[in-house]
Amino acid sequence: MKKIAIVTATRAEYGLLSPLIKKLREYEDGSLKIELIVSGTHLSEVYGHTIDEIDDRIDYEISIPVNSGTEIDISKNQAESLVKFTELFSNEKYSAVILLGDRYETLAIAIAAGNTRTPIFHLCGGDTTEGAIDEWIRHSITKMAYLHFVTNEESRKRVIQLGEDPSRVYNYGSTSIDNIISIADMSKEEALSSIGLSDCKYALCTYHPVTMEVDNVEFQIEELIKAIKEFPEIMFIITKSNADQGGARINELLEAAESNLSNVRVVASLGVRRYLSLMREAELVVGNSSSGIIETPTFHIPTINIGDRQKGRLQSTSIINCGVTSEDIMPAIRLAMSSDYRNKCKYAINPYGEGCAAKKIADKIVEIVKKGNIELKKRFYDLII
User: Fold this and answer.
1) In a 3-state reduction of DSSP, which class is residue 312?
2) Which of 6, 19, 49, 379 is the most exposed place for a label (fewest CB within 10 A)?
3) Do the beta carbons of residue 9 and residue 51 sit within 8 Å?
4) How far apart, in whole angstroms, are the C-alpha atoms of residue 283 and residue 279?
5) pLDDT tens column, 85-107
6) DSSP code per residue over 320-359
7) What is the CATH number of domain 186-345?
8) Distance between alpha carbon 229 and the CA centroid of its chain, in Å?
9) Burial call 105-134: b when 16+ CB within 10 Å, e when fewer
10) pLDDT tens digit sequence for 181-239
C-alpha cells in the first residue's frame, strides 16, 4: 500500500490544507492511504488547542514544544521536531509527505523527510516575504522538495529560477480560494454572536512578529493599539499571533489592550469557517498576515498591510500598504473606509486564482505517487540566459 502524509502544525496552515485533504481522501482505497499528522500549536492550550477545529480523521499527534521567547527556544523546537519526525518517517516509509509554506518547524520536518529519503511535495513555494525569516526557510524547502504547487505565476517563475525542473512546478492557484467558495457560509449575526458580539461595524485583524525585526514587537503593537483607539466606532476582532519568536509577547499586549478598550475583542483562534465568514462581512482587514493579501481580495474589501512582513508578495489593487506607526496606520484606515476606495475594491482581481486548486493538486499528487517513479537525485535546472 502507498501512503501519503500531510503535516499541519498551525491553524493557518490547516486552513489552506483542509480542502486538499478532503480531495485526497476521495482517493483512499486498499492501495492508497492518506495520513494526517497534527503537531505544533494545534496541541497547545495557549494557542487555542486548534486540533479541536480539525474536522477530519487524525492519524498521528506529534507533540513538540512551541515556546517562542528566544532564538534558543526556536532552535529547541526545531531540534525536537527533527528527531520526532525522523522517527515517524523512518517507521512509516511514506511514498510522499505534503508540506505547506515556510514555518521554522516545517523546515525541520523537511530535513527529517530528506534524512529518510521521503519525497516532499511542497505547497506555496516561490513567494517572497522580505520582512520575515520565512523567506529563506521557504526557499530552502523548495530546494528539498520534489514536486511544487505554487499559488501564482510569479512564484512559479521563482521556483524554476531556483533550479527546479519546470515539469514539476504547477500553478493551480491557492487552496484558500477553495475555502472561500465552499465554507464561508456563516451569517454575520451568527459569526459575531459566536464570539459574544452583537451586530456592529468591525475590522478583522491579525498581527504576527516581523521575525527579521523581532526587537520592535512591543513598539509595533503599541502603535497599532494607538491607531485602534482613534476609531471607537469600529470593533477590532483580533486573532492571536502565531508561535514565532515574539508571538507570545504580542498576545500579552493584545490581551492587555482588550481589558482597557471597549472596541477590541481578542480571540485565540476563530477557525477557518468562522474566520472567513467574518472576513466576508468585515469593513476591512488590518495587520500583517498573508491572509489579508491572498484571501481578502476575493471578498472585494480593503486590506491594510502593515510593515514589511509581507513585503514582496504579489498583491491585488485592494491592498493599502503602510508603515508601522500610528501616524501611518490611521490615515490608511481612513482611506480604506472611504466610499471611493471601497468602490475601487469592488473591481479588484485576486491574482491567487478562482478556486478548484485543491482538486487539481490532489489529482496530480495521486497521479505521481501511483506512477511510483520518483527520482530524488534531482538535476539542477539551468536557465538559458
Assistant:
1) coil
2) 379
3) no
4) 8
5) 999 999 999 999 999 999 999 99
6) EEE-SSHHHHHHHHHHHHSHHHHHHHTT---TT-SS-HHH
7) 3.40.50.2000
8) 28
9) bbbbbbbbbbebebbbbbbbbbbbbebbbb
10) 888 899 999 999 999 999 999 999 999 887 666 668 889 999 999 999 999 999 999 99
In the chain, list all ranges with CATH 3.40.50.2000. 2-172+356-371, 186-345
Domain at 2-172+356-371: CATH architecture: 3-Layer(aba) Sandwich (3.40)
**The cell 483607539 sits on which residue?**
229
Query: Phi, psi at residue 214, to the nearest 5°?
Result: -60, -25
Please say if the pLDDT value at position 108 is more than 90: yes
Place of cell 465552499: 182
Dist CA 193 CA 200 (whole Å): 11
In Å, what is the CA distance from 346 to each residue of 140, 296, 322?
37, 12, 21
Looking at residue 213, its pLDDT comes to: 67
- Integer-rounded Cα radius of gyration of the chain: 20
pLDDT classification of 296: cutoffs 50, 70, 90: very high
- Tell the residue number behind the cell numbers 497547545, with chain if given: 44
Summarised one tens digit per residue, pLDDT across range 330-347 is 999 999 999 999 999 999
For residues 112 and 91, give the distance between their C-alpha atoms in angstroms, rounded to a whole number. Answer: 12
Instruction: Name the residue among 69, 72, 75, 84 with its Cα closest to residue 7.
Output: 84
Distance CA 180, CA 294 (A): 11
Task: Give the integer Cα–Cα distance in Å for 288 and 305.
Answer: 5
What pLDDT, on a 0 to 100 scale, did the predictor assign at position 211? 66
Measure the CA–CA gap between 107 and 113, rounded to whole angstroms: 10
pLDDT tops 90 at residue 384: no
C-alpha cell at 261: 478598550
CB of 217 closer than 8 Å to CB of 185: no
pTM: 0.81
b/e per residue, 321-346, with b = 16+ CB within 10 A? ebebbbebbbebbebbbeeeebeebe
Closest CA to 141 of 153, 152, 149, 151: 149
Determine the Cα–Cα distance for residues 158 and 72; give it in Å rounded to an integer: 31
Partners of 26 in beta bridges? none
